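User: what does the whole thing look like in 3D?
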Amino acid sequence: MNSKPRILIVDDDEDIVSQLTLVLQADGYEVQAGHSQRQGEELLLGQKPDLAILDLMMEQMDSGFVLAYHLKRVHGDVPVILLTSVAAATGLSFVPNDEDAKSWVKADLILDKPVRAEQIRAEVARLLGDKACAPNDS
Amino acid sequence: MNSPLQVLVVDDEPGMRQGVKRALRDFTVRLREINGDVHFEVAEAATGEQALESIASQAPDILLLDHKLPGMSGLDVLGKLADGEQDVLTVMITAYASLDTAVAATKRGAYDFLAKPFTPDELKGAVRKAAKHLLLQREARRLAQEKRQVRFQFLSVLAHELKAPIGAIEGYLRIVLHRQAGSDQATYDQMLDRSLFRLTAMRKLIQDLLDLTRIESGQMKRELVELDVAAVAAEVVESFAGQASEAGVTVSLAGSGAVMTADRQELEIILNNLISNAIKYNRPDGRVDVQIGQSAAAVTLAVADTGIGMSAEEIGKLFTEFGRIRNDKTRRIVGSGLGLSIVKKLAALYDGDVAATSQADVGTTFTVTLGKSLVPGLVPGATAVRSRALE
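Assistant: Here's the predicted 3D structure for the full assembly of 529 residues, as structure tokens:
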């Protein structure tokens, strides 16, 4: 029996963190949470996660980009999901839609908030592939 | 130093082109409005066809265009340019000041005329006028663009700040609806509590937004009367008694005798924001010291806390809209990010300002200065001073 896959969640909205934690723990993942870019940086120094979910806007407008960049530099194989909440409402887009942006934004997936529980579970399972827990259909 | 304006002179007489070049070579226009000197670089074309070619490859800022050219005429060139998107200011050069030509050229977008023969000074005069027009127009366009940009950023952040609580509440409601958190009722109660908390914060944001908009628009109804500032402060401090004791913070008030003409509600908003902040960003067993002072010309309201403090860099962005400091220490504290912006705008109505000094983990002092010499007639939205008893 392998140990549980570890997921790192960093979001300055503590309600989002507790909701994601609840949903993913229910699926059988081990969750480590941080509430700021600074806490995220500290968590990155610890044990390697199997996947990371990072909020874009924390202390800085681009905290999530910076964290993702640092994570990928150390662990290039860890999938990263970036959560944003600005794009849809205003047309202001942080989503990398050209090749140039994709080359420096180190995220495997960018999701617009609010993210529904089913969606995040499915995307996590997809990105983890063999390592994924079977979704808990309670 | 501005980059030089590109001038294209179109004339079939080489002597004329040389003359223009010579006249503009060391010519400088000083524009106070944009705070700088403007120089010119001159290119030339002998025919209308050549001119269009040259404009297509690099559009000049100012076009000195002879009307009478071999081949296509100056008017033809203007017509072609009117179809394009180049931002070119044209000065027509005409041998005879013919009214017909002038009317036709103006219709096609010519900005000015220069009658042949002209002296170097007349040429410089026309170029100066064109350059000034062009640069002021560009400056106005730039400012309008900047204003749109600021507004866009404000709305973007506002949308973000409104979407975040909606997302959080929606998430909790779905979990509750589908009973995704097990069978312990207390867990669900906690989620509903959090949802209510997020709604409270959202209502505060909307209220602050309305205040801010009202102040900015000058539509705010103001009732300017003689007020004892310390008495108003005493009432505000009193209203925070509950919140302060909950937070374990002691609020004190010092100072008396400061009287000024002001709107009571505006003073209350200023004091509310500062005292509320001082309590929120404090430590347990902390203090808030409110001090009302005055000089001959101004009243000062100083609110000092013993809280988490800020770095100089953080103070720098404090008074901008949504300039809320986001870090681990402030994460759990409700704030709209608009309060200090409102304080600053209100202080400005009294020819005053707000400043902050701070030391991390020791405390912060906010000082608002309000000018006493208020001329109600000059203040937007001011209503005549009336006695409350008459209303």
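In plain terms: Residues 226 and 261 of chain B are 4 Å apart (CA to CA). The first strand of chain B starts at residue 5 and ends at 10.
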